Amino acid sequence: MAATDSIHGMWSSRLMFILAAAGSAVGLGNIWRFPYVAGENGGGAFVLVYLACIFLIGIPIMASEILIGRAGRQSPINAMRSLAMDSGASSGWQVVGWMGALAGFMILSFYAVIAGWVLSYVILLGSGAFVGADADLANNTFQGFVGNAWSVLGWFTGFIVLTVFITARGVGRGLETTVKYLMPTLFVLLIVLVIYAAVTSGHFTEGVLFLFSFEFERLTWGSVLIAMGQAFFTLSLGMGAIMAYGAYMPKNTSIIGTATTIALMDTGVALMSGLVIFPLVFANGLESSAGPGLMFVTLPLAFGQMAGGQFFGCIFFILVAFAAITSAISLVEPAVAWIVEKLEATRVVAALLVGALVWLLGLGSAFSTNILSDVFIVGEMTFFDTMDYVTNNIVLPLGGIFIALFAGWVLDSKIRDEEMKGDLPYYPIWRFLTRFVAPVAVSIVFVMTFLQN
User: Fold this and answer.
1) What per-residue confidence (pLDDT) applies to 231?
2) In this predicted model, what pLDDT tens digit does every residue of 247-297 receive, in sequence order?
3) At residue 424, does pLDDT exceed 60?
4) Is the pLDDT of residue 415 over 90?
5) Residue 248 · residue 171 · CB < 8 Å
6) Integer distance in angstroms from the first to the last C-alpha of the chain?
7) Under a CB-based contact definition with an 8 Å cutoff, are residues 79 and 72 in contact?
8) Residues 39-82: pLDDT tens digits?
9) Which residues of 399-433 are buried (b: 16+ CB within 10 A; e: fewer)?
10) What does pTM read for this prediction?
11) Which structural domains are found in the chain, ordered by start?
């Protein structure tokens, strides 16, 4: 049977686990990705589907990942293998752990590139580069930055180095210390920015109506797949991060209650980010469906036109940087934990090795906006676009299906009951959603989307 504690260390309390898992979940997916995909897919109608995915699919699968992680007390790969064997099933289930590690590698390789852009914009906004800027200046600044291969490479490398440094320090001194200070600061900054948007934009009501009015005619099965992929991406599901953090979770902690708390925090950040961004967009007559450039072109322009915009714009990008780093350290943790277990390496060596491999893979995404901008991998998708599409719309949902099937059907009932004994009132609901609703819903969206294509 599984060990009581993880060899990698333990979270000091339930609160620290919640902050760490929320830090994994709250990231660029909430602040950079959610507003622009909502803008592209009908606003409130997309938000409604997204919320349904969070509560009917996301929370059950997150609870499943925490369950597997805590029961296994190892890296996701080894936890899946040992729990499968303890349950009389094939050790081949460890492939799900490998899928998560692969997804984490792929995601961090392009995620760190965007995070590098964010770090550079902290400096740009703070220096007043966008004060009084017009649309041409905002657009030319962004295009000039991403078009400069050496600038992008430098900031991308710096972010990877920071991620490796924190991860190498371990669960207590590295991961826990980081989230203990960054996550509360992130929430405070976000509240300040919502108040700023409400008071200064003059279009706060318009932003609220956009997020919560339902234009169902703009929804397609493709939009539903994007909403589901966004739910997986923003909750860090299917990439091993939550499973790895679950391995360090205290024993007598409610799994379902914790998963629900994390999902509510994560969803709150996504919606609050929309309440910051869309009023500023509408106040300046800008396009809500501006795509990935929404945060790097539209918002700097909006901040540049508003009172106190230099200060609050800088604060906004510091907020995004905090969110990015807490997510990044969770993406490397599954692979680092596996290397420590398998090769008996130190965390420093493991973190350096993983960081180097992610950096090498990330070069394709770093150069996708400059020297490799004319190189297309699939259709008209660059290396960056391909990594984003494959992970969010294929690898993460597939991983989610297998995690739900394993936790709901394969895992020995004695192990499942033991881990879930603190969740008895909600256990039957979780089991029904995990066994039937989550895998069936993900499968239907998959099939309908590809039939449409």
Assistant:
1) 86
2) 888 887 899 999 999 999 989 988 888 888 888 888 877 776 666 677 888
3) yes
4) yes
5) yes
6) 46
7) yes
8) 778 788 888 999 999 999 999 999 999 999 999 999 999 999 99
9) bbbbbbbbbbebbbeebbeebbebbeebbeebbeb
10) 0.89
11) 14-452 (1.20.1740.10)
Q: Which tokens sit at 427?
A: 């256990």
Interatomic CA distance for residues 233 and 236, integer angstroms: 5
Among 14-28, 179-193, 246-260, 279-293, whose mean pLDDT is lowest? Answer: 279-293
Which amino acid makes up residue 212?
Answer: F
Distance CA 95, CA 398 (A): 12
* Residue type for position 374: D
Cα(160)–Cα(328) distance, integer angstroms? 9
